[in-house]
Amino acid sequence: MNSLNADITKQMKKRLLDEKEKLLQTLSSLKAQDPFANTDRLNDNAASDTEAKEETDHERYEAIISQQRKRMSEIELALKRIEDTTYGICLNCGKPIEQKRLLVNPAAVYCLTCEKNLEK
Questions:
Q1: CB within 8 A of 117, min separation 6: which ones?
Q2: What 8-state DSSP symbol labels residue 89?
Q3: Is-above-0.90 flag for pTM?
């Protein structure tokens, strides 16, 4: 059962949906900027230093995209938990997640105590 009032839950849902939209835009932009997205790249005769730079840039974009996808998964889980009325409940101990914590990170799934214990 959700321990948050309906207004707070609604506010968190809006923030999560807004962040999800921004992440989708960011992911699209990052994919377009990735040098490996250019199919002509395979047919060019670029110098080896250009190839090395493209490889490095590609790896950097892949790392950023991976982080963005991880955050997207966290957001989608939070939205699912809102729908099934378990939002705001710690996945570890079952106690309410502090409202202040959710205001900082609406996708939080652990209370502060459990988060600290899991990080050890």
A1: 92
A2: B
A3: no
User: Is the distance from CB of 113 to CB of 93 less than 8 angstroms?
Assistant: yes
For residue 38, give the nearest of 25, 54, 53, 23 by alpha carbon.
54
CB-side neighbour CA atoms (13 Å) of 21:
6
What spatial distance separates the first Cα and last Cα of the chain, rounded to whole Å? 29
Q: Under CATH, which number does the domain 6-119 receive?
A: 1.20.120.910
Task: Look at the block and give the residue holding tokens 């670029």.
Answer: 46
Each residue's pLDDT, cut to its tens digit, for the chain (120 residues) gives 456 789 999 999 999 999 999 999 999 998 887 766 666 655 555 566 666 777 787 788 889 989 999 999 999 999 999 999 999 999 999 999 999 999 999 999 999 999 999 998
Do 102 and 90 touch, CB atoms closer than 8 A? no
For 96, the 3-state DSSP assignment is strand
Q: Which residue has the tokens 């079952």?
A: 94
Neighbouring C-beta atoms of residue 37, cutoff 10 Å: 12
